[in-house]
Amino acid sequence: MTNEERQIQETLRKVAGAVETPNFQMPSKNSALHVRRRPFYRSKRWASIGIASAIVLGLLGTMQVSPTFAAYVKSIFAQDGFDEGVQQAARQGFSETSNLSVTDQGITLEVKEIIADPVQVMVALMIKQADGKPLLPTYSSATNAESNAVELLDAKGEVMTDKWGTTFEENVGFVRFILGEKEHEPLPKTLSIHFDEIGDRKGNWKLQVPITMAKTTAATTVLPVNQTQVTKHGLKMTLHQIVNTPTATRIELETQWTEAAKKQLEQEAKKLTGKTTNRAYAPFLPYQQYRLGYYYEGTDGSKGKERLMGRSHSIDRYGHFRWITDDDPLPKGKAATLVINSFHKAIPYDMSVTFRPDELNKKPVIKQVGEDIFTLKSIKLVTDEDSGKQEMEMEIDVLSKDITRIYLPWWVLQDGQGTTYRAKMGGQSKEPIDQSGRERATYKIRLEDSRHWEGGEITKLPEKLTLRLDAVQKKYPLEWRIPVPNQ
Questions:
Q1: Which of 85, 202, 244, 265 has its CA 20 to 30 Å from the CA of residue 6?
Q2: Cα–Cα distance measured from residue 151 to residue 262, given in angstroms and rounded to the nearest whole number
Q3: Selection from 11, 22, 121, 21 nearest residue 72 by Cα
Q4: End position of a domain, from candidates 217, 232, 267
Q5: 100: Cα within 13 Å, side-chain hemisphere
């Protein structure tokens, strides 16, 4: 294997890690029904913990081009680093090699390959010199401007969805469009690319590439389900259909609360009014903050990995959602069973513990609420890499049988003068379930002075602090089995 070939493999391994998970943002009363979700906690080193998550995927890669490239790999998407479903579809011949390009200012923008089916469109783009040679890794055009657009157009030429500010690393970029996020959305017909600037060069790079889905559409099967179940918490679940395409198996589900359940949720909302560090959103937590866990089971009883359903789309402010959840495609010719087996819901919680930082750093402080055990392990001042300001960092262990998640705004830290410190970023790690059936999760959170919009600097640790936890997400068992016949 040549150095160039090793570089290609390394690039595609990196692709798998370049996933951004935007977090839920509460829609306003006048918002459209389908709300684009945006992240509101960011950091270079920390994994953000937000209110709820839905996946919008942008894939970026690093790749050197060599004369052996075409011979080495029939399809870019067949290599390690992409979802197994995308690799499988590429190996089966469902990807299309485009090689359409446009040249301006001595730089060529080329669409190398597209793989498209009714649930997603993947595009591989390349920038290179007009003579076909790759740009040097240090060349300033490796990142394009925010104004540059990659769009999908429908049959009328209207924009369906877009990706702005597509980034290249050493000449290659990958873009992924998720389809079907809007109800009754048509299939795209054209990939439209318009760049005004690449690096330090202004120009005009325009391409329109036809998107062909005849083969992938013919290989797609749709299983109408149209079944409804109501959980003991009063959540009405309607499974509309299961779609199996060359790249993925998609679950299309709708959820909403019964009228009886809304009365109970109203009481929970009252308990959360004025709580958490996101007070405007807190009353909506009981309605909106929930997830469903599921797995696929084979005819031999084998169980796949349990996952949480993703990409929900808000229909109203009170927990009415559309869900589209994609997995690797189910094997052809084999029956399976979709098992929705768990319900994860935010509930009001009452945990409060007062401590002195100097004593905590010598001896952990333990607080028990029911069967849940909280251990405050440490608190210290650290410097934020981006702002250069000092912040507090806490490490907390949570031992519980049913708490599955604690989101940042639910932690509230206050000092003796009434100053509130909000959690701005954090990380969570988990250990295997112990003999008592409890799982240990370690939370490491950064906190800033909430009196300042951008976070005020903390020059010293307060003498006394009170940590409060106003809500937690708990897991409840569920059993809904939906047969999926041979596809």
A1: 85
A2: 40
A3: 11
A4: 217
A5: 14
